[in-house]
Amino acid sequence: MPLALILSTMEVVFWSVTPDPTYSAGYAGNTARSLMIFLLGISIFYTGEAMHRDRELRVEPVLWATPAPNYVLLLSKFGTTLVLALSLITLVGLTAMTTQLIKGHPIEVQAYLLTYSVILIPSAVFWPPSLSC
Prior knowledge:
By secondary structure, the chain is mostly helical. It has helices at about 1-15, 25-55, 60-65, 70-100, 110-130.
C-alpha cells in the first residue's frame, strides 16, 4: 500500500499540474488516473491471496462445513478488499491535497469528492465481485 500511495502521487509531487477547470480538479484527475491500475491490482491480488491462504491453511473445508450461507463467506472477503481499496483512495486523496497545499494552490474538496466518487469508488466496488466469480 505505501508503494501504491507513493507511485500514485508522484506525478502531482514532481511535475506541474495544469488547472483543468481548477487546480483541485487537475490534482484529483491525475491521481485518479494513476490509482486505477493499483485498484485493479489490489482486487486481483487480495482476492486470489485470500482464496489461496484458505486452501494452504486448510481452513476452506472448515468454512464450507459451517452452517452459514455462501454469501456470508464471500461478503467478508469482498468487504476486506473494499475497505483496503477505500483506504488507499482516501490516503491518496489526502496526500494529493497536502501536496496541493504545499505547492500553494487553493484546495476545493468538492472536486476531489466528485472525481473520486465518479471514477474510483465505483471501480473499487464493482471490480472485486467480478473477479471472484
